[in-house]
Amino acid sequence: MSRNSALNCADRTELKQTLEATCFDLAVIGGGITGAGIARDAALRGLKVALLEAQDFASGTSSRSSKMIHGGLRYLVQGDIPVVKESASERAILHSIAPHLATKSPYILTTRSRVESMFLRIALKVYEFLGKVGKEDKHQVWSVAKLKAQEPSLATEGAHNAIVYPEFLTDDARLTLATIRSAKAEGAVVGNYLAVTEVSRDGDFSLTAESRLPEDDTKATIKAKLVINAAGPWVDQLCQLENPAQAPRLALSRGIHVVVAAHRLKVNNTVVMSTRDKRKIFAVPAGDYTYLGTTDEFYPDSDYWPDVYAKDIDYLFNTTNRYFPNTHLSAEDVVSVWSGVRPLVGSTEGKANEISRKDEVWEGPMGMLSIAGGKLSAYRAMAERIVDRAIDILNIEAKPCTTATLPLPGGESILYADLTKLDEITLTRWRRMYGSEINEVYTMGTGLEAEVRYAVLVEGALRLEDYWARRSSRAWFDDRGGIDSLEPASRVMAELLNWSDDRRKHEVTHCLEIDKASRQHIH
Ligand SMILES: Cc1cc2nc3c(=O)[nH]c(=O)nc-3n(C[C@H](O)[C@H](O)[C@H](O)COP(=O)(O)OP(=O)(O)OC[C@H]3O[C@@H](n4cnc5c(N)ncnc54)[C@H](O)[C@@H]3O)c2cc1C
């Protein structure tokens, strides 16, 4: 799969020519998980597809989630049955098409009384029924003694028991990337750092896309019979290109995560904690790190790097320190933070966490379809529905949807080559990152250089930030936010992408500025 799915967006002249050479059946705006899923599904059904992403793939919300492929027990409490049902069954599908991107992690909920335990178990039984959860994944009840043994740092005073149920953890950016690569393998033409700036229609749609890459002034005109706007938090802006008078439909909500070293807060499972304002937050194990998240507050802007404030960190640390009383987390423990904006459909009256996570699709005056409001967990099903609708509108013969069974790149079962030159840490890391493609990465080396080469040659990385934040997650899960990797990684990228030394330094500075800005309000 990987040879055909290699993303080679560096040759901008060729990209422009390919984009302008044909009238596509479908142009998808936005290379987050929503656009990625749509492009993959449509390409697999035989449609001629173009996908245009303004920055790097997954540079919006799809690299800032809690990285959970979950059925969303909390949506059951809110009565959002369709969301629960779909997300719960989609978990199993994702695990089968990309096992390396869906790692099972038990979630632990401590209960304080027999009644609480009973209610929770009833809810979980409904959840398991709705999601057609198999026997092996049904919830368990742990005694306090077992809870203590499994999570020695967790406070157990006053606990009645613990309810434990499995969900999945993913790498959101790499899931998006794998989905886009699969679309590419099926013939989709894919361009990153190409922002759509104009939308018009005269029979077919015509889109103007302009480069957002330093030192590149590519401008392309893309023709398509149908356009789907999957621009996440920027969906309203795209709608306004179609109709400047269009009132906003999104209510944006910001959520942050904070990463600490596992030696400061060690969890073996995902621990669910209740905040004073009755929300659930999570402590999630991530190798040498533990991450905590998240918050949910309305936010006015669709920023790529929304601010993180001291009060956000306090909010997460206060609850965590209650659950893990010997930990005493403070600002000095912050390894890194990330923050993202949920593209919810609704109004900013009421509370952000009460807005439904069900996706909505609407048609604009020119006929552009826009989609927003859904979850990463259900991206595949969401894509299937909107591609069905697109095929109806286009009135064309198309193949049936196969996204639930065809593996994503890295999801095939293979025999691993002799990987003895890899140390244990790299082997674990690479298995998670590359799945069955690990053999291919191994041919490029055994460390950071191989990761960077693979990121550029196969995974479409065009800026240092693309490698640091989204291909490798070093920005979040590495000592000091991965800033020590910037110099060596930039040198490999400079060689592969013909950067001058000034450009290389600019790329390093750009990442350092992102890192610094993310910490500016944390004291
Ligand atoms: C804090 C937080 C935690 C979350 N946790 C979870 C979770 O654990 N599990 C879960 O299932 N969901 C979770 N979600 C929700 C999930 O992350 C989002 O639903 C999903 O990532 C949205 O993807 P998207 O593709 O619609 O948007 P994005 O990922 O934002 O993609 C939109 C893309 O459009 C591009 N774009 C914008 N303008 C243009 C233009 N003019 N031309 C071309 N491209 C353009 C952007 O650059 C961007 O890459 C979470 C969200 C947040 C904020």
Secondary structure: elements and pairs:
Blueprint: H1 2-5, H2 12-20, E1 23-29, H3 33-44, E2 49-52, E3 68-69, H4 73-77, H5 81-97, E4 103-111, H6 114-130, E5 140-142, H7 144-150, E6 161-169, H8 172-185, E7 189-191, E8 194-202, E9 204-211, E10 219-229, H9 235-242, E11 250-261, E12 270-274, E13 280-286, E14 289-293, E15 297-298, H10 310-323, E16 336-345, E17 360-363, E18 369-372, H11 379-394, H12 424-434, H13 438-442, H14 448-457, H15 464-471, H16 486-497, H17 501-519
Parallel strand pairs: 1-2, 1-10, 2-7, 4-12, 10-18
Antiparallel strand pairs: 3-6, 4-6, 5-6, 8-9, 9-10, 11-14, 11-15, 11-16, 12-13, 13-14, 17-18
Helix pairs in contact: 3-8, 3-11, 14-16, 16-17
This protein binds flavin-adenine dinucleotide.
